[in-house]
Amino acid sequence: MLTAFESVVVDVTDFESARRAYALLLGREPIEVDFDPAQGTRIARFALANAALELRAIPERGADGAATIGLREADGIAGIRLAGVFDSGDRLRPGRAAGPTVPIELVGPPASVASRAASGDDEPGGRVEGLDHVVIASPDPEPTSRHLAEDLGLRRALDRRFPERGLRLIFFRIGGVTLEIASPLAAPAPPTPATGGDAFHGLAWKVSRIDALHARLGAAGFALSAVRDGHKAGTRVASLRGALHGVPTLLIEHPPHPAGEPPGARAGGSA
């Protein structure tokens, strides 16, 4: 049974530049910087309350194939890891989840939220609290949705068409993170070797003080859009102008939760 979103893996060609950029964005230093001899990669791991971000340096030479989530040839999201408890009679097993979508790796129970999030005091200018959603672009969302719901047992939180945006959005929730499947309403051309099928599109980070964070990041040299109202009622968002090491990036501030409502009770979604 899958119970948590463990991490998102981003492959980068300039490790030190990416480590510095994400440390500034997230408002914290990595809890781990290491070398993975199996893949020949350097790794920096950032801890947030509901997930981890793992930066992985792409080696100059090919890896030996030991990786469950394969290395990309360019900067960008390489895969996600979902965590759970696997009983002897469970059909799910640790390792790569075979399915018609982006790379997903299944791993054992993650560290506690407290230990994952213990990364220092809050920045005076605000910082990212956690991962809000991962966007997956899909030309045909039905096989992807069946895989996530039936094979992996994830909760479908929303399935809605937005004609004004030309999109169908399907949200799956796990461990306070939304997997957002975005598909065009217009009938797309069948996937080809040139266009591929499902692909990671970007990440949205949850923040509590977007104005302060916007000012801090602007002062640090990030180019950002103005803070604006999000598509979801009550949210305020800002986006980085240009992908951050291959990753389109959104900052999203949610309205305060009503008294007695747990933070993960409401479905996330596109901003």
Describe the structure.
- The chain has 271 residues and is mainly beta.
- Helix content is 14%, strand content 36%.
- It is built from four helices and 15 strands.
- The protein has helices spanning 15-26, 113-117, 141-151, 210-219, and strands at 2-12, 32-36, 41-47, 52-57, 76-84, 95-96, 104-107, 128-137, 155-162, 167-174, 177-184, 199-207, 228-229, 236-239, 249-253.
- The strands form two sheets. It has an eight-stranded mixed sheet. It has a seven-stranded mixed sheet with strand order 2-3-4-1-5-7-6, covered by helices on one side.
- A hairpin with a 2-residue loop joins strand 10 and strand 11.
- The longest helix is centred in the N-terminal third of the chain and has 12 residues, at 15-26.
- It is globular.
- The model is unreliable at 259-268 (pLDDT under 50).
